[in-house]
Every structure is written in C-alpha cells, then in structure tokens.
Design brief:
It is a single chain. By secondary structure, this protein is α+β, with helices and mostly antiparallel strands. It contains 8 helices and 6 strands. It folds into 2 domains: 83 residues; 137 residues, 2-Layer Sandwich (Alpha-D-Glucose-1,6-Bisphosphate, Chain A, domain 4), CATH 3.30.530. The longest helix is centred in the first third of the chain and has 27 residues. The chain is elongated.
C-alpha cells in the first residue's frame, strides 16, 4: 500500500467531546431533578431543573455556532449528534419562558369576598407548608390576574351538585380526605403529574333561590408562584361540572 496516499483521520477536537459530555450530563440531570423534587427536596430539585434547562439551551446555541464554523466542518455530524441531546432541555426552557406572566401567588379561589376555609387540610399539609390564612394582597392580585374565576351558579338541586362535585374530584385524580354533605364541604389533595407537587382543594356547595352555588379554592403546599396551576385546576373542575349539566 502506498503510505503516501493513506490519510490519517483527524483527531476530534476536545471542544466537540466536551459538548457531548456536558449535553449528556444536563440531559441526565432532568429526570434526577424531578426525582429530587418528588422526594421532598423541591427547592434543590427545581434549581437543578432550571439550571439544566438553561445550560441545555446554551449548549445548543454553541453547537449551532460550531456547525457554522469551517474549522469544525469535518466533525459536523458529531456536533449535530451531540446537539440532539440538548433538545429536551431546550424545549423545556422555552416552555418555561413562554408559559405566561403569572403573579407570584399560589392561593386561588372563586370567591375572594367570602374565602373558603379549610378544616382538615392543616393536618394533611405538614409543618413546613404554606399558610392557609388568606392574604389581602394575594386576593388583590388574583382579582387582577384571574377575573374569569367566579362562583359557578347552577339550577340543579344541592344533592345532585354535591354528588357531581365528588365524582369530578375523583375523575380528576384528587384524593378526597373530607366530605361533609351537611356543611356542603369537600376537601381533597391534587398531585401534579410530573413533579408530584401536592395542592389542597376545598369545594363548597350552597343552595340559593335558583338552585346551587359552587365555589372552589386551590392552594399549593410549597413554593411562591404556582405558574397558573391552581387557576387551571379550578377552570378544569368548573368545565367538568358544566359538561355534566351542572
């Protein structure tokens, strides 16, 4: 063989290798962050989650720059393969940025003028949970941010509405830990699908001259802003009741 015509493959630049190492590290960190949150160390878990998403986005930008540079032309396929590892974190990062402008509150109710009061939730929440006391500033921010959340008025009789509310709570996967038909009160805990955050919910059913009134309050156990989760839960509950003809 003519050794003069034999070509030695160029050595892969260390930057390409490090791109892959870091991309894989932050990809693996995402499920680890979720497990950390679900174990109870939610602050540390969310920090790891946020850093991993941001780092993935930065690495993707770096990979795109490398793909455009002539000096990395021989390794574009390797760079592209490593860039794929950053896509999950980048997409999550973009979803966080585009998630909406939510107020820094985590206590949402359909009746801020006559707030629903939990009776059994305190024993369920633990000593380090957010307070269940109502805050005037929180109520003000809710009125400004979620004006659509109102008491649901129904022409249906009390017992049928109460039963429907119980069934909807079960259908939505909530764990009901109190139901008092005489008081018209249902208390339950709702667990988020991915992070496993537990939020307490109270439903109040009352009668009026035209039928029944249904109010609901949803409160996060931890954190400052709920990123709109409690409001979305209330809307879903009310929509489910309407679909049942309530």
């Amino acid at each position: 063989m003519d050794t003069a015509t034999r070509q030695t493959p160029p050595h892969q630049p260390s930057l390409v290798s490090w791109l892959g190492y870091l991309a894989l590290t932050f990809l693996v960190a995402l499920p680890l962050a979720v497990l950390t949150v679900r174990s109870g160390a939610w602050q540390q878990g969310l920090l790891v989650y946020a850093v991993s998403c941001l780092a993935a986005a930065i690495l993707l930008v770096a990979a795109l720059v490398m793909l455009l540079l002539p000096r990395y032309a021989s390794w574009r396929r390797a760079v592209a393969a490593r860039a794929l590892l950053t896509l999950p974190g980048t997409l999550l990062f973009l979803s966080i940025l585009g998630g909406g402008d939510y107020p820094p509150i985590h206590d949402i109710t359909t009746d801020p003028d006559d707030t629903l009061v939990f009776s059994a939730a305190e024993q369920q929440r633990g000593p380090n949970a957010n307070s269940l006391d109502t805050d005037p500033d929180t109520l003000r921010q809710q009125r400004e941010s979620y004006p659509d959340l109102q008491t649901l008025a129904s022409s249906t009789a009390f017992d049928a509405v109460f039963d429907a509310a119980l069934q909807v709570a079960a259908d939505m996967g909530w764990d009901v830990y109190l139901q008092d038909r005489n008081a018209g009160i249902i208390e339950a805990v709702a667990t988020t699908a991915i992070m496993g955050f537990r939020d307490d919910v109270i439903i109040r059913v009352r009668t009026n001259a035209d039928g029944s009134l249904v109010d609901i309050r949803s409160v996060s156990r931890v954190g400052v802003s709920d990123m709109g989760a409690n409001a979305a839960r209330i809307r879903a509950f009310q929509q489910a009741l309407r679909e049942r003809g309530i």
